[in-house]
Automatic annotation (TrEMBL):
Residues 401-421 have a biased composition (Polar residues). It comes from Bradyrhizobium xenonodulans. This is Caspase family protein. It holds the Pfam family Peptidase_C14. SUPFAM superfamilies: Caspase-like. InterPro entries: Caspase-like_dom_sf, Caspase-related_regulators, Pept_C14_caspase, Pept_C14_p20. Transmembrane segments: none annotated. The lineage of its organism: Bacteria, Pseudomonadati, Pseudomonadota, Alphaproteobacteria, Hyphomicrobiales. Residues 383-423, 520-557 are annotated as: Disordered. Residues 520-543 have a biased composition (Basic and acidic residues). Residues 23-153 form the Caspase family p20 domain.
């Protein structure tokens, strides 16, 4: 056992990047409030002073607090801090002020920026990559905290030189390429943050409370920050963290030394300590060494779950690499215009590799959820054992009040926040909305709609949580999902576009059919109508029954006074002697 513990400690020392190993920690804190061309921001200067004080109390070697920097001063501050980061193990930059997203790139805005047109952003603001470049030389941890997700007034007045150029709301999602690099946003990509009504923003207040906790891993600390901000903003603002760290705990303040074990320490303490060392190392060698030393028992089962999680991650990484190679080969053949058979073969291989990658990703998520559940069971079991031991020691103390032997109770190891059922339900609902399994609002009422959404998550994530209640196990498993889990379902007339349903727009002369596709509108042809025979017969009978109107004969009579037409109803009769023609006479009926 001693050899195993020594091996695990060596692994932890070799892989670890915790604060206890950090020889030098440096921080740059920038707060831009006094903007010259837009309204002044109230909180950034206050937040910078608060966060800077937090870094000093945390024992950082160098903390530079800079307020209201113009473009020249900001460039100088980043250049000088880059020199300090080259000699540091941990480098942190905190920025509070205005930021803007242009065509998917995030920029930090100095106080003298005007940004009259979109092209001015390139000259008057600093891309986030420039900030990441400044902290890149740090040896163990690189952390950027951006409280710059405010509703940006520059975007409202800025003129577009290209109509299609996108200027987003808030900041865009980032994917740091350097290892052990984290970027924390005050609000998730595409949303804005609130300054609040107090002297400091809700995000800065939560940072100062959570980050300096001794021995608290940064990932968990930012998780608590997220919970605090959601609760304090009525679940309207959700901080988000991008990037990844290794398997070791990384904290800003080293953990306090553990108290020496009493003479009546639990017999499983040595196994637990070795398990925690293996958990800190987090690789295959550590878990296999642990199982070799402890092949049976409670911790052996937990170790096998963690080993399966490591194996799933290795399989996922291998499948992802194979998928990238297949895509590259497919693109190469297409660029070289290879024959159709080769391209089809490469396309089939790329599709198979992508399917294998998706399967490995799903398997990884399942094993990750199982490992998280196993870790939660461990914490609950240790807490129950600690409570039982404390109760036993209290009972023994009551039975032997004169005994001089004092045994310290072991504190529970669980670090879950104490929240009411409604608050827990609200957090789970918020996460279910993020992964696309819940469309209703997060109101803390765990009703039938919320239960159906957790059932959907179980279906698509491969988990088996009890849908009748909102638990921390389910919350942790949902948090582990980086993107959408449940498929997006849109109403008729709408289609899925990323994580949103957008209305289907058909060109003139087309409409949306029952299959949600645009089809041409058919011209309406005139319909022949049959004449109403009954109406026609009635009109004919009325006409025949009416007395005939007198009509003129068309004859003309003449005399010495002149000629005129014969009156209507009259006719001209010629009278003569013995049938000879004579003068015409007008005879009327």
């Amino acid at each position: 056992m001693a050899a195993l513990r020594f091996f695990l400690i060596i692994l932890a020392v070799w892989l670890g990047c915790g604060p206890a190993m950090a020889e030098k920690r440096v921080a740059l804190v920038v707060g831009n409030s006094a903007y010259k061309n837009v309204a002044r921001l109230a909180n950034p200067a206050n937040d910078a002073a608060l966060v800077g004080g937090m870094f000093r109390k945390a024992g950082f070697d160098t903390v530079d607090v800079k307020l209201d920097l113009n473009v020249v001063d900001m460039r100088k501050a980043l250049r000088e801090f880059g020199s300090k980061a080259r000699e540091a193990d941990v480098a942190v930059i905190y920025y509070a002020g205005h930021g803007i997203e242009l065509d998917g790139t995030n920029y930090l805005i100095p106080t003298d920026a005007a940004l009259e047109t979109d092209t001015d952003v390139l000259d008057e603001a600093f891309p986030l990559d420039r900030v990441l470049f400044a902290i890149e030389p740090a040896k163990q941890l690189r952390l950027v905290i951006l409280d710059a997700c405010r509703d940006n007034p520059f975007a409202k007045t800025m003129k577009r030189t290209v109509a299609s150029r996108a200027i987003g709301r808030g900041l865009a999602k980032v994917e740091p390429t350097s290892p052990n690099t984290m970027v924390a946003f005050a609000a998730k990509a595409g949303s804005t943050a609130s300054d609040g009504d107090a002297r400091n923003s809700p995000f800065a207040t939560a940072l100062v409370e959570r980050l300096p906790m001794p021995g608290l891993d940064l990932r968990k600390a930012f998780g608590f920050v997220r919970d605090d901000v959601l609760k304090n903003t009525g679940y309207k603002q959700e901080p988000y963290v991008y990037g990844s760290l290794g398997g070791d705990d990384v904290s800003l303040v080293p953990a306090k030394p553990a108290a020496a074990q009493g003479p009546q320490a639990n017999a499983q303490d040595s196994v637990r300590r070795d398990y925690e060392l293996a958990l800190q190392a987090g690789n295959r060698d550590a878990w296999e060494a642990f199982l070799q030393a402890y092949p049976d028992g409670f911790y052996a089962g937990l170790a096998r779950a963690q080993l399966k999680n490591v194996a799933a991650e290795e399989a996922r990484a291998a499948a992802a690499a194979k998928a990238r190679q297949a895509e590259d080969e497919k693109a190469r053949l297409a660029a070289e215009r290879a024959n159709k058979a080769e391209q089809e073969k490469a396309a089939a291989a790329a599709k198979a590799a992508e399917n294998a990658r998706l399967a490995a990703e799903k398997a990884k998520q399942i094993e990750e959820a199982k490992a998280a559940a196993a870790e939660q069971r461990r914490k609950e079991a240790e807490a129950a054992a600690a409570k039982a031991l404390a109760d036993k020691q209290a009972a023994e103390k009551q039975q032997a009040p004169d005994s001089t032997q004092k045994v310290a109770a072991v504190a529970p190891t669980s670090s879950q926040p104490t929240l009411s059922p409604a608050e827990t339900a609200k957090l789970v609902q918020s996460e279910l909305r993020r992964v696309g399994c819940l469309t209703a609002t997060a109101d803390g009422d765990w009703n039938a709609s919320s239960q159906r959404s957790l059932t959907l998550f179980n279906k698509y994530a491969g988990t088996k949580f009890d849908a009748k209640l909102a638990s921390f196990d389910a919350l942790d498993a949902i948090k582990a999902k980086p993107g959408r889990v449940c498929p997006l379902v849109c109403d008729h007339g709408f289609k899925a576009d990323g994580d949103q349903c957008v209305k289907i727009a058909c060109r003139a002369g087309y409409r949306v059919n029952d299959d949600n596709e645009c089809e041409k509108v058919q011209d309406k042809k005139p319909v022949a109508t049959r004449e109403d025979a009954k109406k026609r017969d009635t009109e004919r009978k009325q006409t025949e029954a009416a007395p005939s109107k007198p009509q003129g004969s068309g004859q003309i009579t003449c005399n010495t006074m002149g000629c005129r037409p014969v009156k209507p109803g009259c006719r001209l009769v010629h009278l003569g002697v013995r049938g000879e023609p004579g003068n015409g006479s007008e005879v009327c009926n």
